[in-house]
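Structure, all two chains, one model.
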Amino acid sequence: MWPIFHKLGSPRWFYQISGKCLPYLAALSVALLLVGAVWGLLYAPPDFRQGNSFRIIYVHVPASLLAMAGYVLMAVAGAISLIWRMKLAEVAMKCAAPIGAALTFLALVTGAIWAKPTWGTWWVWDARITSVLVLFFLYMGVIALHEAFENQQAAARACAVLSLVGVVNVPIIYWSVEWWYSLHQPATLKLTGKSSMDPSMLHPLLLMIAGFYLFYAWALLLHMRSEILQRERSTRWVRDLILERG
Amino acid sequence: MQFESWQALWHMAGHGPFVWSAYIIALCTLGAIIGMPLARNRRFLAEQRGIERRRAARAGGHSPEVS
């Protein structure tokens, strides 16, 4: 196990291995997203109360899940970079921030668009929605903090601390619909126990969630590879790569 | 299919503007997430090729002193 962990510390090794995974991740995520979106838009039956506006679920829920999961990944990467001073963990943490911010923005916007026909308003200071907004600000804070430091290591340390402190918001988002009186509906998807959603609506949602997870992995690898090239620009292997690409 | 025609699909019983705007925004966001590092790489490679060309020109132009 330790040799793999040690190899993970090498940006060059990571760059080579990730290059092999990328085409498969890209193809699989696009396929799942296409099939899930078409199934959800064209073939899933309309909701008896919300009608066709419920179809926004197929982008809103996966984006929300990935916004939260992405923050946890960023915090874990931050912890690894603090404890073991692993360069690749710093890169992962830095790259997870803009992707997570974009997905949180998507969750908020699609949620607002869905809220208008459902609740009659674009925005409500509801526990779930407010805590997701706080998540967005935390992501933006990590991005801003990175840019505020000239020294990369100091930036990584500060961002790791902010990521770790902010991770307490993730269970708050998840449990907010149980702890407080909330307009936002409670969880329909459960890890343990039966979902309250009909299978004809649930199956495309599961495909979209899987597609979004693979998309996240694809995007994170792309961002990390780009960051590694920048950081390692003066090394022999990057210069050889540039000459190879002409 | 749940809709009788493409027009019905577009209209979605009055919910079309909400649903389609959500999906278009989603497509643009996901596209931007993938496009950003690709554009950054293109800029970086162009910059670095320029640096390598100048480095090669300097190395080629440097001639040993003739006594």
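Chain A has one domain: 23-42+50-188+197-244.
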